[in-house]
Amino acid sequence: MSAAVSVRVPASSANLGPGFDCFAAALGLFLELDVSEADRFELVSELDVPRERSNLAVAAFERLRPAEGHRFEIRSQIPLSGGLGSSAAAVVAGLLAAQRLSGAPAEVLELATELEGHPDNVAAALLGGVVVCADGEPHRFEMPEGVEALLVVPQGAVQTARARAVLPAQVPLADAVYNTAHGALLMLGLATGEHQLVARGLGDRLHQPYRAHLYPRSAELVAHAAALARSARRSRAPGRPCSCGSSGPRGSPSPRRSVSTLPGGRRCWPRRSSAAAPRCAGARSSSAPLRRPARASRSTAGGARRGSRRRA
Prior knowledge:
30% of the residues lie in helices and 20% in strands. The protein has helices at residues 56-61, 86-102, 108-116, 120-127, 160-165, 173-192, 195-201, 208-211, 216-223, 225-234, and strands spanning 4-14, 23-37, 42-45, 70-76, 130-134, 137-141, 147-148, 246-247, 260-261, 267-268, 284-287, 308-309. The longest helix has 20 residues, at 173-192. The model is unreliable at 232-278 and 289-312 (pLDDT under 50).
């Protein structure tokens, strides 16, 4: 029986509200990586990703162990270049697989942060739940009951380097104070389950206004989130459908049944998915015999594969 390992890593949403580069949450959409011994290097995937060693998961794997003589199979529910941490999930998966196969301890979070350039997405992918990254160390807690993610994924991608290039080096003091206050409201609301505080705490002046021209439709949704929520309540859809989250019991009617009209007559169909709920476990890895893995399927949040959790 040849050595093999399977790793399951969640998607993540970072820059939550005012928490630029420090607030993130894991989501119940998963990347799965199976690595097994083989005669030569091979990467198999139905995804539109590189099949060479430049692949993010393989490059991360090679920080701890050579990829030669291994077969990699990648499946993912996470949209590529959609702002849901697909690259962070790939990096974490590669590092965890190499760590498990080598049996040697490794600073996975530190290495993943080095490869990604910032800690928020990789910390959420590795640890699950909600994370606050400060002074190089993530602090984790569970998302409260009754909060689910509502995802609006753009069709066109904006490169991370371009999105960061438009941010100013300095901001007005009033904007810094605004973000400090609203960041506190958001974390207090998430920690206590007070949904009204969560809604108030999502305001931001550090990055969203400067990037609005790069994401005009997303900016429009955010600007009119309150109007969309009122429309959803009138049509008995779950409360507060917007691009960041909604409150209401699982199994409620889908917000797709609530067709909201934006200024100018444009219409919006919010989409909520129980597979994108932030109450989600972090990355899991397990040893497995050499086999052909089953195809990935949508999973409710927290339904991570059984195995030992690896934390840095």
